[in-house]
TrEMBL record, chains A, B, C, D:
<dbReference type="Pfam" id="PF10397">
    <property type="entry name" value="ADSL_C"/>
</dbReference>
<dbReference type="InterPro" id="IPR024083">
    <property type="entry name" value="Fumarase/histidase_N"/>
</dbReference>
<comment type="pathway">
    <text>Purine metabolism; IMP biosynthesis via de novo pathway; 5-amino-1-(5-phospho-D-ribosyl)imidazole-4-carboxamide from 5-amino-1-(5-phospho-D-ribosyl)imidazole-4-carboxylate: step 2/2.</text>
</comment>
<dbReference type="InterPro" id="IPR008948">
    <property type="entry name" value="L-Aspartase-like"/>
</dbReference>
<dbReference type="Pfam" id="PF00206">
    <property type="entry name" value="Lyase_1"/>
</dbReference>
<dbReference type="InterPro" id="IPR020557">
    <property type="entry name" value="Fumarate_lyase_CS"/>
</dbReference>
<feature type="domain" description="Adenylosuccinate lyase C-terminal">
    <location>
        <begin position="352"/>
        <end position="432"/>
    </location>
</feature>
<keyword id="KW-0456">Lyase</keyword>
<protein>
    <recommendedName>
        <fullName>Adenylosuccinate lyase</fullName>
        <ecNumber>4.3.2.2</ecNumber>
    </recommendedName>
</protein>
<dbReference type="InterPro" id="IPR000362">
    <property type="entry name" value="Fumarate_lyase_fam"/>
</dbReference>
<keyword id="KW-0658">Purine biosynthesis</keyword>
<comment type="pathway">
    <text>Purine metabolism; AMP biosynthesis via de novo pathway; AMP from IMP: step 2/2.</text>
</comment>
<dbReference type="InterPro" id="IPR022761">
    <property type="entry name" value="Fumarate_lyase_N"/>
</dbReference>
<dbReference type="InterPro" id="IPR019468">
    <property type="entry name" value="AdenyloSucc_lyase_C"/>
</dbReference>
<comment type="similarity">
    <text>Belongs to the lyase 1 family. Adenylosuccinate lyase subfamily.</text>
</comment>
<dbReference type="InterPro" id="IPR004769">
    <property type="entry name" value="Pur_lyase"/>
</dbReference>
<dbReference type="GO" id="GO:0016829">
    <property type="term" value="F:lyase activity"/>
</dbReference>
Amino acid sequence: MIPRYSRPAMTAIWSPESRFRIWFEIEAHATTALAEIGVVPKAAADKVWEMGRDATFDVARIDSIEAVTKHDVIAFLTHLAEIVGPEARFVHQGMTSSDVLDTCLNVQLVRAADILIADVDALLDALKHRAQEHKMTPTIGRSHGIHAEPVTFGLKLAQAYAEFSRNRARLVAAREEIATCAISGAVGTFANIDPRVEEYVARKMGLSPEPVSTQVIPRDRHAMFFATLGIVASSLERLAIEIRHLQRTEVLEAEEYFSEGQKGSSAMPHKRNPVLTENITGLARMVRSYALPAMENVALWHERDISHSSVERMIGPDATVTLDFALARMTGVIEKLLVYPANMQRNLDRLGGLVHSQRVLLALTQAGVSREDAYRLVQRNAMPVWRGEGDFLTLLKADTEVTKALTPEQIEECFDLGYHFKHVDTIFARVFGRA
Amino acid sequence: MIPRYSRPAMTAIWSPESRFRIWFEIEAHATTALAEIGVVPKAAADKVWEMGRDATFDVARIDSIEAVTKHDVIAFLTHLAEIVGPEARFVHQGMTSSDVLDTCLNVQLVRAADILIADVDALLDALKHRAQEHKMTPTIGRSHGIHAEPVTFGLKLAQAYAEFSRNRARLVAAREEIATCAISGAVGTFANIDPRVEEYVARKMGLSPEPVSTQVIPRDRHAMFFATLGIVASSLERLAIEIRHLQRTEVLEAEEYFSEGQKGSSAMPHKRNPVLTENITGLARMVRSYALPAMENVALWHERDISHSSVERMIGPDATVTLDFALARMTGVIEKLLVYPANMQRNLDRLGGLVHSQRVLLALTQAGVSREDAYRLVQRNAMPVWRGEGDFLTLLKADTEVTKALTPEQIEECFDLGYHFKHVDTIFARVFGRA
Amino acid sequence: MIPRYSRPAMTAIWSPESRFRIWFEIEAHATTALAEIGVVPKAAADKVWEMGRDATFDVARIDSIEAVTKHDVIAFLTHLAEIVGPEARFVHQGMTSSDVLDTCLNVQLVRAADILIADVDALLDALKHRAQEHKMTPTIGRSHGIHAEPVTFGLKLAQAYAEFSRNRARLVAAREEIATCAISGAVGTFANIDPRVEEYVARKMGLSPEPVSTQVIPRDRHAMFFATLGIVASSLERLAIEIRHLQRTEVLEAEEYFSEGQKGSSAMPHKRNPVLTENITGLARMVRSYALPAMENVALWHERDISHSSVERMIGPDATVTLDFALARMTGVIEKLLVYPANMQRNLDRLGGLVHSQRVLLALTQAGVSREDAYRLVQRNAMPVWRGEGDFLTLLKADTEVTKALTPEQIEECFDLGYHFKHVDTIFARVFGRA
Amino acid sequence: MIPRYSRPAMTAIWSPESRFRIWFEIEAHATTALAEIGVVPKAAADKVWEMGRDATFDVARIDSIEAVTKHDVIAFLTHLAEIVGPEARFVHQGMTSSDVLDTCLNVQLVRAADILIADVDALLDALKHRAQEHKMTPTIGRSHGIHAEPVTFGLKLAQAYAEFSRNRARLVAAREEIATCAISGAVGTFANIDPRVEEYVARKMGLSPEPVSTQVIPRDRHAMFFATLGIVASSLERLAIEIRHLQRTEVLEAEEYFSEGQKGSSAMPHKRNPVLTENITGLARMVRSYALPAMENVALWHERDISHSSVERMIGPDATVTLDFALARMTGVIEKLLVYPANMQRNLDRLGGLVHSQRVLLALTQAGVSREDAYRLVQRNAMPVWRGEGDFLTLLKADTEVTKALTPEQIEECFDLGYHFKHVDTIFARVFGRA
């Protein structure tokens, strides 16, 4: 997480201030619950809320206590006692530090997930808008980087829309994975705290109780969360690479928006480089890489060890902040993408009609030519075109073995671009629903 | 995927014979669908089924054709024509190789997922059985590898049960991710094939149609699938490491079953090593590692490139076969695990009562002592015990500052082991449901 | 490791036959060394060599013994005793299984490294040959996929040559890392075996003694080995992606060789797809992924645990066989690469001279124009060219602010292509040495 | 990189101030070199040094320029012109931004490597000191977590010393990998800048010229650098896990130093947790994970794309700062490690002599018993001991089949602990050299 690739709302989730605020809420809700079941005085719980609700927790003060105690939650509780007064002794009764830490982490991840889901929604909006705008803009479909058959630019964006719809569903599932709360004490047995406290705090914090915690909330949940972020990042990479390809000098079918005053290169002022999508490509590598330490975090020793903690202090912010930034950047790229239909048409026309060879092949077989013969006929007319020695349509019409099977009109029909787009509506309906 | 770590049912999914059989079914169903909408003769479709239904596809023959054509699907279709006769020219009409390859891969992954889900079910059964058997077997809970407070051995297994229940749900979701079918032609536009063919084949093969395919089914689906396998593997690693810890010479609370005739070591015949769970630990590393190339496969160029193919030829079998083997091995380990309650009790007693310190701390604060003072009192009696200079209960009773707050009976109550287990029922009900 | 992506020499290293042969050599050399220091009878050592030197070890027989003992080395020794007779009891004296297994693995990795180094040498030869052939073939240099300034195709290949020269040196270092031998007994103390035996076996097997082994040879060595393979694979990916880019329809500056009879696509017979380099791209992902479990293998417990073993049974063959195949495939691609200088020139000319803008910028500043002004002048003439509204040279000559600083001749000089290649010799000399 | 896990010297390398200072040095040295070969006025170069040598570069000012130009090097050069005056137009002549950026990154990585090498040296010192202190402290060697045969605690540390000696050599090689400089212009052809400038700047910055750069320095170098850091981290993990094991309650052979005032747990005041080594375990996961995006960075498009940049802005600091912190933390752990020889002896004695079974086995075979029989004899006496039904020595002496082969004295000799340590000197000499 570095400022250059951060946005404030996501960054704020991970500030010490946010963390201490969440800690306070967990502790205060737990104290209220303890009061409700008669373990601590109701007045004490009220006092905690009264003094703490609008308090500012002094990060520097807490840090200085932690420097001595080497224990962050004790440092916080010590500071809380300074704010609340003697009633503070009823706070944290029967709880263990991880009850606070793990529940807090999950609150932060839930909030991060909410932002990421909103980010994907914004990206989906942009994709849908541009997909509909270019629903029928012809462009060449490419496999292996080689011209294949025509598609529309809208179809490319519809594919991305479908992919990010899946990513949205995955993020919702990932959010669910980590939306749990543990207030279960030293080794998760509720020895010193009633399970009703956990249920109460969970409800208040928008979480559900963790069925079995063992001081910690099990890390398979978090691994699934971060792996999901890695998948979303991989989809971003796919879209980024598509745009980078389209912006290549020789292709130039689309371009990232280039703002006034922006300089592409100190050396080559004419250059307009796809730096945003290249940047997203790199960010995707980072987000993906965080899935691994998250998976290695699962196998904690016995009821817990603390090896996961340093990992999460790093990837918690790093993965969510970076993915948030990359999603937002991609949304901007899509919204403002410069699309060049004329260039798309020029590229489409480039191969002298060879992109229709599959259709010719099919027409030949449907006219009774064997698959092997049809293939041979198409290939012998295609190769000269490929070498720049003629136009596919003309050559086919001049090939007597071809004209034995197909009339000139039938051959010409194979070169009708619109033919390829007759099911675009079907696909759009699958993706966006019927209008 | 190596024989040593393979089981036959999963391995069979990936055999050439299975693959060609699935290819045949896809092609034959597609031909039937084409016949139903009048594109090819009904009789041709019938002939394909008639000749192919019980045919044995000659792997060596197909390989030898591929050696010339360097194209696997063409090689198969050529061989199919040898079996079916001239009607074979109606097969594969308007389709592209990837329609067959990608749909086949998903069929294989779905079948693999079904086996993995069954594997997890078997493991869940074993965990549940052993959890109930040891529901109230006391053992020490450990954080950081250090004795914390008592838990039961059943709770440890209930945690694993809850974790693998989540993994089951994740596998079901992962299966859903890749249960799609594409019969959409060269670049996914259905230019030469009606979308109804895809719908028909999907239904027959137990899949749903891919909303937008682009010659290939998008690889974010597969990435999610393999990432999920990595999570399941990480959970296996956690359970494996737990057992390895429990089998340590100094701990010896449980042991892998040791069969007659088995030799632990050529050099140290008394040794009984947790080799199965160590093996699972290594296998987990492998399954986890496959998530990465799967994620890198997402960003194919434009409508497709074929870089994903070599990756999937390797990790398709490797990840599913290895995880299947590891899950089955773990189920055997759990079913036959030798559990030593007496050793658990011995370890529990090892610290002279220090594991009850948290309870004493709580009793002191509940009796009105400040948190700081209570901490100090517990600590000054705990440290001598830790150094082997006395018993915690005796020392506390002799500490006048302690006895000012608590009666001897109140102190003794803090040492009641059963106290810790009063919510085991609650937790079991959360995990296994009310009896 | 799958047959499709395997070559026989590398595969043979990992066969059971090779493994048992190496085991025999280790055991027999150790017995000879034991005889030399008087621990076992000289005659026994001679007998071992006599009976075993040309023996065929029966893999099926050893497997069937292992099925009972569940221990591979004991199974082998049992079978060896069947071959050697009673003198076999002097074999393996004071040794532990890992002495055999770990030393054998390193012998296999050393042999694999030798093949990989030879593979890189072959690739270097191909790169050098083609680099010299195209030393002065002009082509456009691209940054961000956008035309930048002219380079030569030979320079591209020289870069690859330099990169693979580094990879060769890394492989030599990686080979050195794992070229060690351990014959140090149960926990590496030489309690029951003299260190001279290790020295003898090491020398005979072409290894050096491991300074401190602890039953096992430390796995940081293997991690470094496999990480190095991951780097080599990443360089292959870079070169593969370069070729895939050059073969794009719109670029078509180079093409993979396309053999007679090969079919690019069942649907589009004109297509010639860069399937070899796409395949290498995927294989690179796999080889890279193996670095991770290798790194996770380092942290074995205490003197050893066996979690590394399953990982190495998989990645030992998988990583080396796959990289060997990918290197050899790339060598073939480079040797037979179809290079199209005319297309390179056509692409170079595509931007109406804009690729010379940097030189114009420099000429302006050298003529006393400020950097900011020069940038502005170049930019205002470049933008119309970019939009297809004129030729850069013509526009510059017509810009009076430009011509105030530069004469027409000075402007024309900026468009001299040869100017860019004056240091090609320098770079070639750095890479290939002076002629 | 987060403050909690950072040390100031390493962090300073990555500050904007350091970066701009290095940029200045590169630009100023290049200007001097240009002056020496007569391309720019000598006075201009002098002015650059005069004004810039002690200048403070205004980070906020540069940021605000970059906000408009969206180009960091142009922003810096603009600010530099504000400092230097009109002579600034001679700066950066014929160079491209990457000449500055890439050379700067390598300077930073070289400085980081120097700190890491010094860190490893400090760790080696600590390991050597403690290894010699405990050269002859007996402790049990464990394989699979199970008692094997005796080793000394010094041997464990000597192993770590040998491993980190290798890591030191790897870091030196990794430093060499990235100690290169590129001043080669837009696409690396030196079209507008003489190669002598690169040679001059390289020499002044302590680097060597990159043989072929292509605007960027090739990223296989950086991949190797970060992969090496991942290996070092994996070794740290191994040592951390060893200490965590030794500190387990049931083992307690060593303990992290526990400072006054430190609180292990808010709930269990007696607990002394190995939190430093657990923390290092987590940090190792992070450093290891950075190797992957570094490897993915290798395959830049053509002469360069900028996808590597965001990755390096993150992992450059993250990997080096985290590893520096982890190494230093480990050095502190080793220096102050509390070692408990009495507990080691107690654990050694725990198995009633079974750890000597291998020696008994050997004595039996040397006395003429067949390997199979000897194994059986040892096993039948070992199993009762394992079940707590007797002492190994006593049982062996009472086994008539054993006493047929060995005298009581010979049996007793097998139980001599010192026997295992006779080659400790040999091993220490291998690792630390002869005294």
